[in-house]
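User: quick one, fold this
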Amino acid sequence: MKKNLLALMLTLAMALSLAACGGDSAPAGSNNSGSDAPPAETQEPAGSSGASGETYRIGICQLAPHPALDAATEGFTDAVNALLPGQVEIDPQNAAGDTPTCATIINGFVSGGVDLIMANATAPLQAAASATADIPVLGTSITEYGVALGIDNFSGTVGSNVSGTSDLAPLDQQAQMIQEWYPDAKTVGLIFCSAEPNSQYQVDNVQKYLEGMGYTCTQFPFSDTNDMASVVQSAADASDVLYVPTDNTAANNAGIIDNICRGVKPVFAGEEGICGGCGVATLSISYYDIGYKTGEMAADILTGKANVAEMPIEYAPQFVKKYNPATCEALGLTAPEGYEAIAAE
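Assistant:
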């Protein structure tokens, strides 16, 4: 009897020992919940987004609210959002036409540690180039980077932390446009803001081409909106035809030019926005397109596909001759062949 009891106790002890071993038989790290569910995914690090695991912060400084600059900002934003979906935080700021405000905005971006700055127009570009040598800076709506940044014998590549796109339409073709409409005119008045170096660059070159065609040219610079009306009136009184380059101050105040010149003197413009406000005709580019191209450049820089210091300045791929129907009607003009009408806003 005792032997049978002892054998039973030994059998129970062995069974309990085997059960205890089997209860912890799963390998380390495996899911031991008793279900077929896969292990929980490892949480992504803070600040990551999507498969790439990268997010980027971009600061945009736009000089002023204006259709051309607005279109460039829109194109840039659309491009970076399309190429880096869900990975970009954009901080758009507008200086409302005030140059010192550009520096304030840019300094805020630098101190905030953004990954890239987009400078829309010359004043924001100059502020960004002065504020940082480390953060990539892309300009757009810039006429000539060598002039804007004080680079002698500019070769097309800045070579520092700055690159971008230009809004310059061929100046020789702009001069030819004036000759096409007014071959018998004698005098051309060149109106521009003296505070904008790119405007001076444009009128100097357009004057050279026009004088080669036999026109007599006079420059009429204004310092700001305070003397703009009087300068435009003087130019209108002294000239057969007027020319306004791609000029931010003129663009923001095209109504002043229109009030003086509509139905009285023809104005040819360096870009569509100014022409739509006061001009007869222009050789136009798409500001949305150059903004979009700038956004493509930004995506390449942020993802390491390109080095900003090695990126040449990009230009608009095509130019379109356009005319302002309302201004032409007021002057009794018919557009030559090959011109598209500027759509009324």
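User: anything notable?
Assistant: The two ends are 111 Å apart (CA to CA).
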